Amino acid sequence: MKPEELEVKAAAQIAKQQAFDVRLFTCSSRGCQSADALGVITALKAEIKAKQLDAKVQVSGSGCLGLCGRGPLILMKSKTQKDVMFCDMTAALAPKIVTQVVVPMLSGSKIEQPGGDLATKTLDLNDPFFALQEFVVLCNNGKMDPEKLDEYIACGGYTGLRKALGMSAEDICKEILASGLRGRGGAGFPTGRKWELTRKVEGDVKYIICNGDEGDPGAFMDGSTLEGDPHTVIEGMLIGARAINATHGVFYIRAEYPLAVERIEKALRQARAAGLVGKNILDSGWNFDFELRLGAGAFVCGEETALIASIEGKRGTPRPRPPFPAVKGLFDKPSCINNVETFANVTRILQHDAAWYAARGTAESKGTKLFALTGKSKNNGLVEVPMGMTLRTIVDLVGGGTGTDHKVKAIQTGGPSGGMIPVHLFDTPVSYEHLKKLGSIMGSGGMIVIDDHDSVVELARFYLDFCVDESCGKCAPCRIGGKQMLTLLDRFVAGKGTEEDIKTIRRIAKAMQLASLCALGQTAPNPVLSAIHHFEPEFRARMQSPAAKQA
């Protein structure tokens, strides 16, 4: 494909889409698929065909539409009326969208609020859940079918790559650095600086690796991005490859994400056929291709050196650093690893520019952030909000509170490596620097809402048990310290904790933080320490009574 053909394809696809009066996008991510989204799509298509509306109405799959707890979701876009979203769809109910809404619309009727069976299935797009979000990574969801390359190109796809092909590697690194993008995998290291370090290392072979080994309990941001907009991630990796002069690309995706794997494989086949991946990309003379490796579900393989070992066919265990992967990575060659969301942001930065991206967020945390908002939240799902939005806004407005008569008590950010933040600190902006001050982290983007009926003692035990189970066992501080701390937490859960146990937990936690080999062991105490710090009375309530001690 020649560069100018991108514009021709985009124009042709846009014209094709504009021929439809109504477009119905059904979320086809794995969450909605589990609730029979594919059956809903089939039922819609059958009804459209029966009404002979094929030339006027398009039915399409879509990436995640956000409100996962109310899926399957259908977003209706029309030329004449405002967008409407339907929730809790079934194959039996979906055809009524055609008969009760689409057909009257095409006849000239204005549908302000669908009635009948659809009255309670219509969502208000002015609700804070939708209105307060800002879509950068998710900007194509609800606009295109993730399995169709031409539709991605019509949304501006691969224009960022085209721009990068006309830039030097150094200039690409500078652009990403100027944007303020920080790695979205959890550590928050500046992406442009990471690329620059790798670029400067000499090597006949260099690798760029996508970390799609999302393992935090309750997290599904990266999986949803891979499923909903696979070409965005591929384009971001191609841009990164140009920036560091990489020679090979590797996707590392956990095998528990079969739909993500399927769509990345399909997108790569499409991109190769179109000359966007492989030999002579966009007639530039540059050759670059990818391979895909599947992770077996080990949480520790989210750590980059363990991930590298896993790709090499070895046991997935971390190794000491330095040397860092930028110097000695995959097969001992210079390697750069970024996560899915990071690459998706890279694409948007090159499609626009660094200043456009840096206009969002805080001084030290630029852009937007994806979160999997789960737990005791009325609106469970995938959200994207600008950095700097407060926890209170996210929980109370975007999340809608608990949706019950229970009150929000805290929120867990950062998964098993993060911390519990009590409700009185919810006016804290969400950013790398602010969450760190509270003893938590951004992590990859898990957010679990805790209400006043939840026990933080038992939740802290749950996270620590997860880390103990997922520890590779290579280093003693994590292997032994985690187990010792878990034994002490078991005493509190059983109502037999002591004052001395709290002191011992803190001593063990400090040893793990200072001496563990990788971030799994270093951060495993975080949920426990934050729970004790903010909710010590709950631990004291689980202490053994003096009478029981004497007995």
Describe the structure.
This protein has 551 residues and is of the alpha/beta class. The protein has four domains: 105 residues, Glutaredoxin (3-Layer(aba) Sandwich), CATH 3.40.30; 203 residues, NADH-ubiquinone oxidoreductase 51kDa subunit (Rossmann fold), CATH 3.40.50; 84 residues, Ubiquitin-like (UB roll); 85 residues, NADH-ubiquinone oxidoreductase 51kDa subunit, iron-sulphur binding domain (de novo design (two linked rop proteins), Up-down Bundle). It is 43% helix and 14% strand. The protein is built from 24 helices and 14 strands. The chain has a five-stranded mixed beta sheet with strand order 2-1-3-4-5, with helices on one face. A five-stranded mixed beta sheet has the order 11-10-14-12-13. A four-stranded parallel beta sheet has the order 8-7-6-9, sandwiched between helices. α11 crosses α14 and α18 runs antiparallel to α22. The termini are far apart. The model has no long low-confidence stretch (mean pLDDT 95).
CATH topology of the largest domain: Rossmann fold
| CATH architecture call of the largest domain | 3-Layer(aba) Sandwich
Based on CA inertia axes, which overall geometry fits? Answer: globular
Q: What about the largest sheet?
A: 5 strands, mixed
Low-confidence stretches: none
Strand content: 5-15%
Helix and strand composition category: alpha/beta
List how many beta strands DSSP finds.
14
**Count of individual domains:** 4
